[in-house]
């Protein structure tokens, strides 16, 4: 079974802090890595994707990938209360997108 | 509006009934999916179609039958509903099965079996 593992949280950070979300995966052949944000009662929405080792920045979000360690992370700088949501890590290989169970993030004003 | 749209948004039904959920996308995507999200928020793939052809069929009860009349539509029919089928069902689409750009999800159908 190809697995994607995340700490379910909840992860609580104060407003303005950096939130760090982590994900590990078991399939070494995985090609693409995604972070989705899901607000309560809503559908997942794509916020970042990364294919290569290293960092990828988009505004306040930075995705980090280390294929040797089979590890992908998402950093959210200057966290805002509106960032409070569940963050889903997803890993793609050959027609197959697997999701982690998500980490619930709460940003406190 | 361009989107992935699902109907109905809510579905409450009794055990043993048969129900369908419809999904349509106007994004021009070739591949569509059905995911089930349980109470613990875990998203699990059920089916995937590429240009009306079934490409992923995970281990789900054969009471679940997908149908794709064309590449813009993927419907899910469920026979003999059981309590354990209660969940949120998400339809999604992407540019293709070898997609590297992520999925666009519909708004979900919350199914409650009583």
Topology of this protein?
The complex is a heterodimer of chains A (109) and B (114).
Chain A: E1 4-6, E2 11-14, E3 19-25, E4 32-38, E5 45-50, E6 54-58, E7 61-66, E8 71-76, E9 85-93, E10 96-99, E11 103-108
Parallel strand pairs in A: 2-11
Antiparallel strand pairs in A: 1-3, 3-8, 4-5, 4-9, 6-7, 7-8, 9-10, 9-11
Chain B: E1 4-7, E2 10-13, E3 19-25, E4 31-37, E5 43-50, E6 53-57, E7 64-70, E8 73-78, E9 87-94, E10 104-105, E11 109-113
Parallel strand pairs in B: 2-11
Antiparallel strand pairs in B: 1-3, 3-8, 4-5, 4-9, 5-6, 7-8, 9-10, 9-11
User: What summary fits the major beta sheet of chain B?
Assistant: 7 strands, mixed
Alpha-beta content class of chain A: mainly beta
What is the end-to-end distance of chain B?
34 Å
Strand content of chain B: over 45%
Arithmetic mean of pLDDT of chain A: 93
Number of helices of chain B: 0
Uncertain spans of chain B: none
Q: Identify the biggest protein-protein contact and residues per side.
A: A-B, 24 and 24 residues
Work out the helicity level of chain A: under 10%
Using only CA atoms, what is the Rg of chain A? 13 Å
Count of strand segments of chain A: 11
- How far apart the termini of chain A lie comes to 40 Å
Shape field of chain B: globular
The quaternary structure here is: heterodimer
The arrangement of helices and strands of chain A along the chain is EEEEEEEEEEE
Number of helices of chain A: 0
Cα-atom radius of gyration of chain B? 13 Å
Description:
The complex is a heterodimer of chains A (109) and B (114). With 109 residues, chain A is mostly beta strands. Chain A has strands spanning 4-6, 11-14, 19-25, 32-38, 45-50, 54-58, 61-66, 71-76, 85-93, 96-99, 103-108. In chain A, a hairpin with a 6-residue loop joins strand 4 (32-38) and strand 5. Chain A is globular. The model of chain A has no long low-confidence stretch (mean pLDDT 93). Chain B has 114 residues and is an all-beta fold. Chain B has no helices and eleven strands. Chain B has strands spanning 4-7, 10-13, 19-25, 31-37, 43-50, 53-57, 64-70, 73-78, 87-94, 104-105, 109-113. In chain B, the strands form two sheets. In chain B, strands 2, 4, 5, 6, 9, 10 and 11 form a seven-stranded mixed sheet that branches. Chain B has a four-stranded antiparallel sheet with strand order 1-3-8-7, with no helix packed on it. In chain B, strand 7 and strand 8 form a beta hairpin. The radius of gyration of chain B is 13 Å and the shape is globular. Chain B starts with a strand and ends with a strand. Chain A binds chain B through residues 31-32, 34, 36, 38, 42-46, 49, 51, 86, 88, 90, 92, 94-99, 101-102, and chain B through 33, 35, 40-45, 48, 55-56, 90, 97-108.
